[in-house]
Specification:
By secondary structure, the protein is α/β, with parallel strands linked by helices. The chain has helices spanning 8-25, 34-45, 85-96, 107-116, 131-140, and strands at residues 50-56, 61-68, 73-81, 99-103, 120-123. The chain contains 5 helices and 5 strands; from the N terminus they run ααβββαβαβα. It starts with 7 loop residues before the first helix and ends in a 24-residue tail after the last helix.
């Protein structure tokens, strides 16, 4: 199952359901980030050796993560403003190559910036994670504690009196 990043309610409901199934069926539940699932699939659709998944986080920001074709996490999921994305990706490209796969809802908005920075993104045309790749990554991962939601941004909602 995916742990995020994603919508607050979607993550909570999805993970609660998966954890309940885990208990009822006495089966492990493995969490996979949406970014890792998209990057993994992008690598199967392009000739790239590594991939970046970038999801639109609104407010001029993206959720971004990267993985290699060998399954190594090159960039753990993070929330980053769009302006520093080219520098962040350039740093990865120095280690892994200027040509990489690109996936996620922010692909179109950052592709031009990355190209202008001298990088060679290959748009995989993937915008959302596919359940098949989530299942494949989960099947290959070791069982551990029940997955928890991945929150990369503090909640906007505040309790009365300014309490969080």
């Amino acid at each position: 199952m995916t742990t995020g990043p994603g919508t607050f309610t979607g993550q909570r409901v999805g993970l609660a359901f998966a954890r309940a199934l885990r208990l009822a069926l006495n089966k492990p539940a493995i969490g996979v980030t949406t970014l890792d699932a998209m990057a993994a699939e992008a690598l199967t659709k392009t000739p790239a050796a590594w991939a970046i998944a970038a999801a639109d986080a609104k407010r001029g920001e993206v959720y971004m993560g990267a993985r290699s074709a060998q399954g190594e996490i090159l960039l753990a999921p993070e929330l980053i403003a769009i302006d520093p994305v080219p520098a962040r990706v350039t740093a990865l490209a120095k280690l892994h190559g200027r040509r990489f796969a690109l996936a996620g809802t922010a692909s179109e908005s950052i592709a031009l910036l990355l190209t202008q920075a001298g990088l060679e993104p290959i748009d995989s045309l993937l915008r959302q994670p596919d359940a098949i790749f989530v299942a494949r990554l989960g099947a290959d991962a070791p069982a551990g504690p029940p997955p928890k939601p991945l929150y990369l941004r503090a909640p906007d909602a505040k309790l009365p009196g300014g309490l969080v």
